[in-house]
Request: fold
Amino acid sequence: MARIGLIVAILFAALALNPDYAVGQSPAAGQTRTRKERVPFFFGTAPNLPVIGGGTVGQLTVWTGFNSSNSVIGDSIITQTKSGQIGIGTTTPTSTLTVQGVIETTLGGVKFPDGSVQTTAGLNSIFHDGTLTGNGSSGSPLGISSGGVGTPQLANGAVTSAKLAPLTAVRSLNGLFDNITLSGGSNITVNTLNNILTISAANSLTGVAHDTTLTGDGSTGTPLGVGVPLNLVGAVDRGNGNAAVIRGLNTANAGTGMIGEGGIGVGSGDFGSGSGGIGVVGTGGMGAASTGGAGVLAEGGSCISSNCQSGGEGLQSFGGDGRSDGGSGVLAEGGRGNSGNGGRGVFAAGGTGSGPGTRGGTGLIAEGGSGVNGGTNGLAGEFSGDVSINGNLSVTGTKNFRIDHPLDPENKYLYHAAVESSEVLNIYTGNVTTDGRGEAAVQLPEWFEAINRDFRYQLTVIGSFAQAIVSEEIKGNRFIIRTSAPDTRVSWLVTAIRSDPGILKHPFNAEEEKSSGERGYYLSPDAYAQPEERSIEWARNSQVLLRIKDRRGH
Reply:
């Protein structure tokens, strides 16, 4: 391309001087030239006017313009050095012809010393050997022929993994590149023959080393198996609560994750060799600085689709059938506190309820077993010791005390029912004797007025006929009784409405609307000749009670 540019530039350089003579200065009117001068040839024409202007040494001169009295000359863009180097657009040519700018030929093309003429910058064709295909034109572009790249065409180390496109060739083997040697390890042989790589095991395995969690040596005669008893020991971080040394996950429809079944007791004895084995034993880990781990953590499955009724129980426990007594569904005993409080036998907390007409879950539901064949129904709950209730106590029956009958303690019980009211009342009683003036002051506890209001009085004279009145009502935790006769014995009773901060925060209401889920159900359905399924208990816990009823077979 440089050769083409040079020839085009030469064609455009009209640099030779004109051999003719030209008038160097226009004569004045009525005068003729007395001599002729050899002047340069300039492109363009101008009137015969005196020439003014100048130029630079080595720079060709051109007419630059004229006015009414003179023609003006100046430097052109063409320079010729004393060495014969010509420049167009530059005053410092470095070759025979140096052009600064674009060279254009509009006719004829460029003729080369070999006589060939080129009228376009493109090549007619490209000569190549058999490693390439095509002639380099748009219709037949160059390409590498099939098998065109062989060992002679590749320099040592010229092709690296970075130059190979993904999925076109194996670029590395386990991070190894270039020449890779495979060597056999223990019991493995690597052979190469006729460009074929063969990896073989000279001898089969004779055994598998393992610990006590497995049995057998892996051969056909003694295949591997899980050891019994199976003791697994490992360090597994608790993480989100699902990580453990053993985890059972059944992916089948309604499949059981893990089953533990105790063995059958053989022999005799209440708690000796005749007892059945325990199905699952869970022992929580020892706590180093906080609390010990739970022996068993059970969480019911979620059921949140539109067809669901309730989530699954965290723990279903059924006592075993006995020839005499049945087994306990749950036997729970709190741990011993070495320097603090003992542990709880059972801690139960109900779940959160969401939405209008719903309620939170009940912390503990207990139902007594049915007595059949002349048996008596069992108790829903039996407590040996004091019971503390932080909240209200609601019952459908009476609130009784029961003791051994004092007149026949071996054969009978004696019951007394609690006094009930539509108000939360406190009752205080006592006896007092008036003085010689017929007055008596009754002193009540110092906290009396702090928890009571709206006082009511009853007075009964004992032993004589007299009148008795409350002459001064309760003030400062005392009131005054006055009788119509001196030295009169009076029995008094004061009733008051409870008004301590607890009852004010949670006031008592004698009437309550049933929730939408409880309407149509009864606390005592049998009292209204309704079946058991119409009870409030069924409305709240129908799924649980159905499973219990099915297990009982009725």
